[in-house]
Write a structure and sequence with these properties.
Elements (H helix, E strand, L loop, with lengths): L1 H6 L14 H8 L23 H14 L8 H5 L4 H13 L6 H25 L4 H9 L9 H4 L2 H7 L3 E3 L5 E3 L2 H10 L19 H21 L3 H7 L6 H21 L9 H6 L2 H7 L5 H6 L10 H18 L13 H11 L3 H12 L4 H12 L32
Antiparallel strand pairs: 1-2
Helix pairs in contact: 3-5, 10-11, 11-17, 11-19, 13-17, 13-19
Length: 415
Amino acid sequence: MKPLLLYGSHTMLWCMTGSSMAQTWISLADMPPNGYPLITGANAVHIPATYSPEHMSLAWELLKGSKPKVELDPKLLELCPPSIALLTILVDDWIGRAYPKDVAAFVRGFMRTKLIDESLKEWKLGLEGMPLSQRLAVLDLAFPDVGAEIDMDLHSGLRQFLEPHLDKKGNGRYYFRDSYQRQIVRLLFNKDGTLRESWSSLEFSATLMQLDMSWNLLRLGEAAHHLLGPHTSRQWEHEQPPAGIDKFKAKLQAIADKTATKLASDQGGVVGLGPQELWERQSWFQKVLSSKWNDRDRAKSKVYKQARCSHLAMLVFYLRLSRNVLAHAKPWDQESDIPVDVDVIETLPRVLGQSLFEFNEVIVDALRVLSRRTMEGINAEIHAQLSGSGGSSIEDLTDDEGSSDGSHGAQHDGS
């Protein structure tokens, strides 16, 4: 701030504030000097909520340089969402608390007591008095495969506030661009649109980005199985394929091709293996296949063995298996003692040599080509397997024929 004031234009005043100053600016707008509203000369500068890994590394080095007497723990950078502002506050709080040795526990507490509580306070001011439909629309923004029509669904003031942080889908709907912002919203809302007031400790057993990717990977597995699974080849011969299925298939094919190249290069000279053999040789594939949540898919795997003759088919199968595991690991369910399986979340990024951030963006890029109607149809098909279950854009995805435990309850949303 000081360099801006010292070396900036003498005809310009810089003022950087947080959202808590909103009422101050509203009051300023109501007090025009000499009949000219000063607020009309102010321009909003929307600072990005998420920064690239390179920017985060640069900020980390600058923080270390500004605190030469303190040895900053690298886990602070590793566990922090990709936000320079959050990283700065996190580091200052860590130092202020006399350098807690258990950095993971400290970060979980920070996210719970600082980030989520502050977010609730900010959101509550704007949304508590708004109709339920507004809160549900905001919740829809947290799901790239669904999104919301902000021109119709959101109050004009709320739309103007959120639009700089949204990306637009091909069908005109919008969703939150930033991974940790999506997960914050899921944590703040119940699936009925009411604001939450408390959270369980298990909800913070993984980082916000890991939790966001857990949701995205789960929904990708659902979409892949129901749109491209071995049972669908005949289905689309008699039915009109859903909108976006060709683009969705192309996105998954790109992932499958990269995986195929990686698997082939890691075989140590072994040649002549087909896609199915390559995938089944991987320990990470066998681990998820042998999960107790995949006993039915494991038992039925021989039935579809001939249909899984391509890398795309094996990717769809693996996403299906991963989905079954993630659907039963519910850190947002206070009655559950099963933490989210971080290993499942990080497997494909690790195989492809990509960061979690990069691969999460790849998943979002695939999900965003699907329409709300397509996802509602998928959810309806899933929920029809349990009597009395209804589908909605943020309805929890239930266990189904992939698991033998048909009595298990529905998976809640981010609450």
